[in-house]
Amino acid sequence: MSCRLVLQDLHAQHFQEFLLPESGHERSAYLLFSQVNIKADPWTGQPSQRFLSYEVVPVDEGEVVSSSAQHITWATQSFVNVLKRAHDKGLVVALVHNHPGGLAEFSEQDDRNEADLMQLAQNRNGPEVSLLSLVLMPNQRWIGRLWENLTDVRPLDLIQVVGDRISLHYPDRGQGQPSAILNRQALAFGDVLNQDLAQLRVGIVGVGGTGSAVAMLAARLGIRKFVLFDQDVVEATNLNRLHGATLEDAECAHPKVEVVARLMEALGLGIDVQTQQKWVNDRDCRDALRSCDVVFGCTDDHAGRLVLNRYAYYYATPVIDLGLAIEVSNAEIPEIQALDGRVTVLQPGYPCLLCRDVINPTIARDELLKQQHPEQYESRKAEAYVQGEGNPSPSVVLFTTDVANMALQELVHRLQGFRGRESLTKQRVRKFKLMNDRSQGRESKAYCSVCGCSDHWAMGDTDPFLGLLE
Ligand SMILES: [Zn+2]
Ligand SMILES: [Zn+2]
Question: What CATH superfamily classification does 183-444 receive?
Answer without folding.
Answer: NAD(P)-binding Rossmann-like Domain (3.40.50.720)
